[in-house]
Every structure is written in structure tokens, then in C-alpha cells.
Write a structure and sequence with these properties.
Elements (H helix, E strand, L loop, with lengths): L5 E5 L2 E10 L4 H19 L7 E8 L5 E8 L11 E5 L2 E9 L5 H15 L5 E4 L2 E4 L2 E5 L13 E7 L2
Antiparallel strand pairs: 1-6, 2-4, 2-5, 3-4, 3-8, 3-9, 6-10, 7-8, 9-10
Length: 164
């Protein structure tokens, strides 16, 4: 089930993350390893997350490898010199929708958001590069923890893309 797409204003958000270069079809198998690295790094720093985890698609290459970050909001920027990425999601206007259901259905949610944005005359903050499409902020925010709620029909994921 998909919510109606909308435009929302978001403030800048510091986050801690880990990154990997992989084919898009490999994300599902890489996610638990990346989440373990992120949780371990946060634990070493004694940091409690301030928002749910998200995937940030930095560079998308549909035919080759893409650069993906797994991040989680933190109350303040993390110190440099750690194994974690110290990032900040940019403030601005985002097109977003909420998808309820299994993660396998998120492709359709992304397509629905992109189609809606095109019909509204909205452009995403992204550019083309030799490595693929480079996004300023293209997020899948996981509001439901599958370990706490094993029923995939109730999983709530927000798709959010920064607008140009």
C-alpha cells in the first residue's frame, strides 16, 4: 500500500553510516553485514541513534555497481577518524511517500514517486556521471524493525528524494 506522494521540508540531519559499492540486487544480502558494522561503530562511540536507519543511494548504476550508504540519524555529528561515515543529509524540499508492505515492493514505490514528481513538474537533485546517476539525497527510511515486527505486510518505509 502506498500513501499519496507529497512535498515536505526537512531540516539537515547528521548521520553515521557505512558504505559499500555493489550491484543493486546485492543490497538484501549486504544489509545485515552493513547494519552490524554500523551498530558496532555506534556502540564503540557510545552513540544512541536519533532516527531510524536508511539506505542512501549515492550513485545508481542499473547495469553495474552502485554506491550505497546505510546510515542512521544521530543527535550531533560524530567525530572524524572512525570507521563510520560522518555525514549530514541536506536540508530542503523532498518528494516523499510511505510504502507499507514487504521490501520487495519498494521498486514499485520508487517508480510511483518518480512518476508523480514528473507529472508535478518536479526534478530530483541528481546529476548524471560516468559512474551512474549521482543523487544529492535519495533515501529509503525504514520505520519498522523486522526483528520487532516480523509481519512484512506491516513494514513501513519512507521513500524520500531531495528536489532540485
Amino acid at each position: 500500500m502506498l500513501s499519496e506522494p507529497e512535498v515536505v521540508d526537512r531540516e539537515a540531519q547528521p548521520y553515521a553510516g557505512v558504505s559499500a559499492t555493489m550491484r543493486l540486487r546485492e543490497i538484501g544480502e549486504a544489509f545485515p553485514r552493513m547494519m552490524g558494522e554500523l551498530a558496532s561503530g555506534l556502540s564503540e562511540l557510545g552513540i544512541t541513534p536519533s532516527s531510524p536507519p536508511f539506505l542512501r543511494y549515492v550513485v545508481i548504476d542499473m547495469e553495474g555497481e552502485s554506491l550505497i550508504e546505510l546510515g542512521i540519524g544521530v543527535p550531533e555529528p560524530i567525530p572524524g577518524g572512525t570507521a563510520l561515515i560522518a555525514g549530514a543529509l541536506p536540508a530542503g524540499r523532498y518528494a516523499r511517500l510511505i510504502a507499507t508492505g514487504p521490501y520487495e515492493e519498494l521498486g514499485a514505490a520508487n517508480e510511483a514517486l518518480q512518476g508523480w514528481a514528473e507529472r508535478q513538474g518536479l526534478r530530483f537533485a541528481m546529476s548524471e556521471s560516468a559512474a551512474g546517476d549521482r543523487w544529492d539525497a535519495r533515501l529509503e527510511i525504514y520505520w519498522t524493525d523486522p526483528m520487532q515486527d516480523p509481519d512484512p505486510s506491516t513494514w513501513r518505509t519512507e521513500i524520500a528524494c531531495l528536489l532540485a
